[in-house]
Amino acid sequence: MRQDQHTNHQSIARDQPSQDGREHRELFFSDLTGTYPGPFGFGISAAGTTLAIDIDGPVLVKPLPPATYIEIAGGGRVTAAAARTSTVVFPFDGFVDYCALRSPLPTGRWTACDILPRDSVVSHAICASANHRMTLAKR
């Protein structure tokens, strides 16, 4: 089985904690470089040592020049081994969509590969699985 890795740099900022009287939760936003639609990234919520991510609406799209795009969507939840950890590996239920086109789309514009005209697509593959892994590591 081939395992592909892709590294993206991101910054994570803390949002305001919930004031609704429920379990204390914090929300962090990840701003990924080189993806769109941006600068949205995705949210990471934390309650104690339980962390959750959700990438859905919008999905993340990483352009790989000259005309290839990787689309990622899904989510996962994990309990971190310690309150302060430098690496977290999330089980990730979702999909990775690979789309190679004959010519690039306008910068910052994306539409799903499966609705583009067939003659504009060179190669298209989707890997949907509940067994993906997403690793977030402090650098």
Overview of this protein structure:
This protein is mostly beta strands and 139 residues long. It has one domain (10-137). 0% of the residues lie in helices and 55% in strands. The protein contains no helices and 7 strands. The protein has a 7-stranded antiparallel β-sheet, with no helix packed on it. β5 (68-79) and β6 form a beta hairpin.
Averaged pLDDT, please?
77
> Which assembly state applies to the chains in this document?
single chain
Total domains: 1
According to DSSP, the number of beta strands is: 7
Tell the overall outline.
elongated
Strand order of the largest sheet: 1-2-3-4-5-6-7
Describe the SSE topology:
Blueprint: E1 10-14, E2 26-32, E3 42-47, E4 50-64, E5 68-79, E6 87-101, E7 121-137
Antiparallel strand pairs: 1-2, 2-3, 3-4, 4-5, 5-6, 6-7
What are the defining features of this structure?
7-stranded antiparallel sheet; 139 residues; mainly beta
